[in-house]
Amino acid sequence: MTTMSKKNKEHLDNEDVVNEETKIEEEVMPDAQAVDGETKAEDSEKQELTPEERLQAELDAANAEIAKAKNDYLFLRAEFDNFRKRTLKEKSELLINGGERAFKGLLPVIDDFERAIGAFATTDDLDSIKQGIELIYNKFTKYLNDNGVKKIEAKGNEFDTDFHEAMTLVPVEDDEQKGKVIDVIEEGYTMNDKVIRHSKVVVGK
After folding, report:
1. In order along the chain (205 residues), what is the average pLDDT of each group of 10 residues?
2. How many CB atoms are closer than 10 A to CB 159?
3. 25 within a domain of the structure (yes/no)
């Protein structure tokens, strides 16, 4: 009697375990089935679109892309216009301020010339006047050099059309002087290594 009771008890326990596992599976399976059902429903909806509806959907997507591209273009155009206006303004200010600095540097030279002119009326010492003019000249040429303006060294050098402008040719007895600058009629200048005025010269032939 005791043995049978134990077996019956074990049998009942096993049935409880099986029933519990079945219950868990039943609770889980409906969720999986529901998800699968939703996916199939979406696929079904896509498949149920008519050709006209599919074309309309594609058209709507294309119009959205066009609208986005147009907005991007308008934004970039506005940015470019702002950049162009800023650049023009900065360039204009640079030209104005650059000219202001250049002329401001010339004012001391003008002051020296005015003092020299005033000295002509008060002294007969030509040597002192000459020295004063030479000082003004040296001061002016130094200012030019400091700002990148330099005289072209021409006399005695080979004639070079990049720097010289031949005004006349003169015959020379020395063969070494042929093709060289014999004399300078008007000095030439460069600014930052760019010719701003060619030297007008006499060339030997």
Report:
1. 46 49 48 51 61 88 92 92 91 78 86 86 82 90 91 92 93 88 94 93 93
2. 21
3. no
The CATH number covering residue 201 comes to 2.30.22.10
Cα 52 from Cα 54, distance rounded (Å): 5
pTM above 0.85, yes or no: no
CATH of the domain at 109: 3.90.20.20
Q: Is 31 a domain residue?
A: no
122's torsion region: left (phi>0), alpha (psi -120 to 50) or beta? alpha
DSSP bridge pairs for 168: 202
Strand bridging mode 199-204 / 164-170: parallel
Asked whether the CA dihedral 105, 108, 109, 111 is positive or negative, the reply is positive
Do 115 and 165 belong to one domain?
no
* Range(s) of the domain holding residue 194: 150-205
For residue 197, the model assigns a pLDDT of 94
pLDDT for res 68: 92
> Do 182 and 170 touch, CB atoms closer than 8 A?
yes
Q: Pick from 147, 162, 192: which residue ends a domain?
A: 147
Report the number of distinct structural domains present in the chain.
2
Structure tokens at 73: 């273009």
